[in-house]
Structures are given as C-alpha cells and as structure tokens.
Design brief:
Order of helices and strands: HHHHHHHHHHHHHHHH
Distance between the termini: 47 Å
Shape: globular
Number of strands: 0
Helix content: over 70%
Structural class: mainly alpha
Radius of gyration: 20 Å
Largest sheet: none
Number of helices: 16
Length: about 260
C-alpha cells in the first residue's frame, strides 16, 4: 500500500515515466489540444466545458461548431474551482483521453491505440492531480480517474494502492469504495472487491451504489439468494435493479422447479 510519503512523491515519479512514454505518441495525443466530437464535448462535466470554453471556440477543435458556455457561467465555475482553475484544462483533456481509451471505435476513428490514449490520460490528469490535495474540490474524482488510467496502462498495483489511500481519506464518499471494488474485480479478485464494498457500508453516506455492486458480485459468484436479498436492499436505497432482478427471478424459479 502507498504510504502518505509515497503518495506525495508519486506525481513526480509518474510524471517522469509518462514524459518518456509520451515522446512516441502521434501529434494528436502528444499535443495538449485533442479535437472534440460533439458527443464527447456534450458528455463532459460542466466544469470542463467552462475550463475549455476558450479552446472550443477555435474551429480546429471540432468538425462542427460546439456550444460555448457563457462568460458568466465560466466565471462562476472559476470561482467554484479556485486555485485549480489553471490546471483544469489539462485534467479535462485527460478525462477525454481516458474515455477514448475505453472505446475501441473511438480509438480507431482517431488513429490511436489504447496504450497511447491511457498514456496521454495519465500525463494530463497527473498535472492537475499533483497540484491538488486530499479534501480539495475534485480530489476524489481526479484520483479515481488517475487510478483508472494507471490501471488501463497496466499499473494495476499502483491503481489499487492509490484507491486504498483514497478510501482512507474519503470514507464517506461511496464513489471511492466502488472505484476500488471495481478495480479489484477487474483484476480478478472479486472476494476482495466484496470485502471493500461491505466495509464501505459502515462509512459511506449513500449505501445504494455499494449495494448495487454487491448484488452483482454475489450473483457472479453464484450466491443467488444472497444477491436477491441485496437487490431488494439496493432498490430500497433508490437503485435501478430491474435487469439483475429478472435474471435472479429466472434462476430462482428454475431451481425451485428442479
């Protein structure tokens, strides 16, 4: 697990690693200004639309004109974000590249490999992440995206360590427990993922997202009755569980008939 000292030094180490990796990337990845599609831009969070407003006004940024956030809204977000504002465009470019890295169709359209997109995402997200701190606005979201980019580039151990530290820092945030659990599950350790979620139920301010994934993971393990009970709890917490509930009903009906 990363100690706080190691966590503090991680940005410098990762920056050096990604600097050398970025040299081999094509211009559209190595540069700071990847061209947006209309859909990609529309899916960005509002603070990214504000931070990128000056860029998207440039014709080369898109094949069609993009809606630009008003100056009033830009200033509002600048006040909300505070000192991180100047680093936010780099972070938002990183989020864009992270999204592209996970979509094979988009990668082909832009002539990229997943490795190239993940490397670019790491480089850009790290710029903003290294200038932020635990408890700061967007820290949790930045760290989750940073860890996802690390995982995608094959640095699974680093991603898990980063998220384990984040769980300690922001135990009340359900997103951090889910992010760690999903990373563990993708790495093949579903039991550790379940343990993470069950531990998080005691501290997370919202239980629904954790119950949602607990139900899914118990279903994957074949523990259908446990999964069915968790589906009920998740629905009571406001989660949409229709698809998994129907699967469980089918499985449980079959077992009853047999």
């Amino acid at each position: 697990m990363l100690t706080r000292t190691a966590l503090a030094s991680a940005p410098r180490v990762l920056a050096a690693l990604t600097f050398f990796g970025i040299l081999s990337l094509p211009p559209c990845v190595a540069g700071r200004h990847p061209q947006f599609t209309h859909l990609e831009y529309s899916l960005l969070p509002d603070y990214c639309k504000a931070a990128l407003a000056t860029e998207v006004e440039q014709p080369r940024m898109s094949t069609k004109r993009l809606p630009v956030m008003s100056l009033t809204q830009q200033r509002k977000w600048q006040n909300v974000v505070g000192p991180l504002w100047n680093s936010l465009p780099r972070y938002c470019h990183g989020v864009l590249m992270l999204s592209r890295a996970q979509n094979s169709t988009t990668l082909r359209r832009h002539g990229l490999s997943a490795a190239q997109a993940y490397a670019s995402a790491i480089k850009d997200i790290e710029v903003a992440w290294s200038r932020s701190a635990p408890g700061a606005l967007l820290w949790d979201k930045m760290t989750i995206n940073y860890a996802r980019a690390l995982e995608g580039s094959g640095k699974v151990t680093d991603a898990v360590s980063l998220l384990q530290e984040l769980v300690k820092q922001s135990a009340e945030n359900p997103e951090v427990h889910v992010a760690l659990a999903r990373t563990l599950q993708r790495a093949g350790d579903i039991n550790a993922a379940i343990t993470t979620l069950e531990s998080g139920l005691g501290t997370a301010r919202q239980k629904g997202p954790l119950l949602f994934y607990l139900a899914r993971y118990y279903y994957e393990l074949g523990q259908t009755r446990k999964a069915a009970a968790l589906v009920i709890q998740a629905e009571q917490a406001g989660m949409k569980m229709d698809r998994l509930r129907k699967r469980l009903e089918s499985v449980l009906d079959s077992s009853t008939q047999n």
